[in-house]
Amino acid sequence: MQVATVQSALRELDRTLAEQKARVLRAEQNEKLLTTLREKRIREWTAGLNQQIETDAHECWIASWNKD
Question: Closest Cα to residue 41, out of 33, 53, 29?
Fold first, then answer.
């Protein structure tokens, strides 16, 4: 009787452990995805900012050139 109880408890622990491993794996995958998306957003924002700075610098140069 006790052997069956211990075996049942071990099966339950194995099932719980497998579920926990799956949750950890999903969390790691989500973290990687969020990091990738965050890095992409930063690259896009930086590119847009650089483009705006370039446009502003060009407009300032044209404005100063037209004054002369």
Answer: 33
